[in-house]
Amino acid sequence: MNIVCLDLEGVLVPEIWIAFSKESGISELKRTTRDEPDYDKLMKWRINILKEHGLTLKDIQNTIAKIDPFEGAKEFLDELRSLTQVVIISDTFTQFAAPLMKKLGMPTIFCNELITNEEGEIVDYKMRCPNSKYTTVKALQAMGFETIAAGDSFNDLGMIKESKAGFLFRTTEQIKKDYPQFKAMEEYDELLAEIKNNL
């Protein structure tokens, strides 16, 4: 039995923090897991910047409401889900992902939780499990699934490496250079064809 594991941001939808960086005018928030491999360090840094600027979860959600999936993403996902089971494994948060899942046809997503105070400020976050993408793929394999994975960032490499087939999708030139063993693609039809070949 196969299950396809996909990253969310950068693969199916634009990067939320980059969109919010543009909307808020805070250029430091452009930094993502493509730039910083240490997710805990990245999130603590983001939370501090939000606090400095007096920004709340609602401010970010207002930006997310304007984000649409990439062109062709829903169609790609619909076709893939007609062929096999698909799960989105993301380091984003339920409070960010919910409206985007509606636009993608409500696929299954495993992600994390933000912790806010009474004022709606983000004060912390709770990971679903440590090293969540790698850990989830290993758990799915332990349940008898063969995994096929695709992602674009440093935090996707664990699930890509551990899967029977793993692909880089719309990644950076540096990641392509550092991980030449993984086929890198830019278009959904290419990715769909590669996944089909491995089902």
Task: Describe this entry's structure for a reader.
The protein has 199 residues and is an alpha/beta fold. It has a domain at 2-13 and 71-112 and 129-198: Rossmann fold, CATH 3.40.50.1000. Helices cover 44% and strands 21% of the residues. The chain has nine helices and seven strands. The protein has a seven-stranded mixed sheet, with helices on both faces. α3 (57-64) runs parallel beside α5 and α4 (73-83) packs parallel to α9. The protein is globular. The N and C termini lie close together (9 Å).
Summary tags:
7-stranded mixed beta sheet; 199 residues; Rossmann fold
Write the layout of secondary structure elements.
Elements (H helix, E strand, L loop, with lengths): L1 E5 L9 H9 L14 H15 L3 H8 L8 H11 L1 E9 H10 L4 E9 L5 E5 L5 H11 L3 E6 L5 H6 L2 E5 L3 H6 L4 E3 L2 H11 L1
Parallel strand pairs: 1-2, 1-5, 2-3, 5-6, 6-7
Antiparallel strand pairs: 3-4
Helix pairs in contact: 3-5, 4-9
Indicate the CATH class of one domain. Answer: Alpha Beta
DSSP strand content = 15-25%
- Rounded Rg: 16 Å
* CATH level 4 superfamily of one domain: HAD superfamily/HAD-like
- The shape, in one word, is globular
- By CATH, the topology of one domain is Rossmann fold
- State the strand order across the main sheet: 4-3-2-1-5-6-7
Number of DSSP helical runs: 9
Overall pLDDT confidence: 96
